[in-house]
Amino acid sequence: MIDAQNVYKTFITPDKRKVEALVDFTLHIDRGEVVVIIGPSGSGKSTFLRCINRLEEIDEGKITVEGQDLHAPKADINKIREEIGMVFQHFNLFPHKTVMENVTLAQEVVRKRSKKEATEIAEALLKKVGILDKKDVYPSQLSGGQQQRVAIARALAMQPKVMLFDEATSALDPEMIGEVLDVMKTLAREGMTMVVVTHEMGFAREVADRVIFMDAGRIVETGTPEHFFTSPENERTKLFLSQIL
Amino acid sequence: MKFTRRSAITVVVLIVASYLFYYFFMRKGITYSWHWYDVPKYLFYYGKRFSDDPAPAWHMGALMMGLVLTLKISVVSIIFAIIIGLVVGIARLSDEPITKYLSSCYVELIRGTPLLVQIYIIYFFIGTMLRLSAFAAGAAALSIFEGAYVGEIVRAGIQSIHKGQMEAARSLGMSYSQAMRHIILPQAMKRIIPPLAGQFISLIKDSSLVSVIALADLTFRAQQAVAQSLNAFEIYFTAAGLYLVMTFTLSMVTQYIERRMAVSD
Ligand SMILES: Nc1ncnc2c1ncn2[C@@H]1O[C@H](COP(=O)(O)OP(=O)(O)OP(=O)(O)O)[C@@H](O)[C@H]1O
Ligand SMILES: [Mg+2]
To answer: A90 CB less than 6 Å from ligand 1?
Structure first.
């Protein structure tokens, strides 16, 4: 489903320093798999997610999604992105659009659905994430947890084949984390292919098929959630887990 | 539209200022016999425009005709300045180095030279080459001049929108231009409108410079009326008042639009 081979990504910071965000990064993710990526700040987790839908260009290597080479010069990136939903740490809802419009806009503009069809799909999804009663308000009137659930509905409305979550609960007040994680768990159980960057080990334990620990742009250790909870091997993994658990 | 407190204050200030002006005149003993009764005919008059008109009727006076031309050239220039400004503002943020370079050259060039000189260049040089009318040359000069400023306002407006908005739109499969049109520009608009209004108020005032290429705008008509009637103070005050009416209306309209657009905050 997603195949990253020997990906390198280096950032040049404004003060001309080179930061190696991904180093020889290789990862294969199967359809229906839920992969949780953990790792310390700056280890390249976000960068990897953003390379999967080409919000970042890669320097070397190859990433394919459903066999389509994402970074090929001729790739129709908009077409490929339709199939990849992304949920951001800071929601990034469109503040000038109502909740309903947030969920229908891309359906109409990108998927060319009629307003009626888009609205029906949006209503079903808003109901699913439990926020249908707020469909006519603007994002600024919602709590963080509500906003993130709308953002998930917005991404799902494109009927993507993969969902990417970049610390979707990190900006939320503790009492709102649960409601967003519940939505994510439901998705996982329904068989959605998911790549989830999170520090929520409870989520990993419940639904992850595989956990990947990254550090300094590399995969340091990979295994089942059980493996990470019971017998992590690498010293850095142990140190990191001891800090977040 | 409500008569806001700010506009009330403006009116009071105007009244006080004119009183002080009168007072100053008296104290200094400047003797000037006011001929305000001479002014209305430059606004509207009842009579025959030409001696062979069949019957007398109401007509616009010289100042009124100048006002109409000023309005016309301002509206045309505002429209083109918006178009130029949008293109230039977006071009300046382009990833394409040539587009970026050309657009910033344009902005630097236009902002670094006086409008009056630009009007002369466009009228005498380009206008002659392309056989432009004085109106077309004047409108072109104003549009090109204000377009550079609008471009900077648009660029700042777009840059003020958090980059997560573009990323969210792109991640949903929208193209760059779809994201611009549906997500970035509508939000940027809200922040662009106040400085844009200021720019258009400048444009209306700057348009008085086109009188140098014999375009019969409000300033030009006022100069003529003064030459004819010798009532310099009355005519220029009236002209100033008419400019104020235009700029003030524009600023009221903007305030109204700003309030309307605040709904999603
Ligand atoms: N646009 C950028 N310009 C320069 N450096 C960047 C940029 N984006 C990321 N980096 C650097 O690349 C490295 C990897 O960043 P990334 O955001 O992928 O880390 P992360 O694992 O997501 O961390 P966090 O947990 O803090 O979100 C970091 O050192 C970061 O400073
Ligand atoms: Mg990150």
So the answer is: no
CA A65/CA A9 separation, integer angstroms: 18
**What is the distance between the alpha carbons of residues A191 and B228, in angstroms, rounded to a whole number?**
87
Residue A196, SS3 per DSSP: strand
What confidence tier does B29 reach under pLDDT thresholds 50, 70, 90?
Answer: low
A229 band by pLDDT with thresholds 50, 70 and 90:
confident
Alpha-carbon separation of residue A43 from A9, A81, B85, B234 (angstroms): 12, 24, 42, 74
pLDDT of residue B3: 60
User: ∠ at Cα B132 (B129, B137), nearest 5°?
Assistant: 110
Residue of A30, A237, A94, A187 lying closest to B185 (CA atoms): A94
Convert the pLDDT of each residue in B97-120 to its tens digit: 999 999 999 999 999 999 999 999
**pLDDT for the residue numbered B2:** 55
The average confidence (pLDDT) of chain B is: 90
Give residue A119's pLDDT.
Answer: 96
Bridge partners (DSSP) listed for residue B145: none
Q: Which residues of B touch A138 (CB under 8 A)?
A: 263-265
| Segment A138-162, tens digit of pLDDT | 999 999 999 999 999 999 999 999 9
Query: Under a CB-based contact definition with an 8 Å cutoff, are residues A85 and A156 in contact?
Result: yes
- Across the interface, of A53, A109, A158, the residue whose CB is closest to B178 is A109
- Both tokens of residue B191? 């922040």
Adjacency order of strands within the sheet including A162-166 = A84-87, A162-166, A193-197, A34-38, A210-215, A218-223
Report the separation in Å between the CA atom of A5 and the middle of ligand 1, taken as the mean of its atom positions.
20
SS3 labels along A72-141: CCCCCHHHHHHCEEEECCCCCCCCCCCHHHHHHHHHHHCCCCCHHHHHHHHHHHHHHCCCHHHCCCCHHH
Query: Would you say the C-alpha torsion B5, B11, B15, B17 has a positive or negative sign?
Result: positive
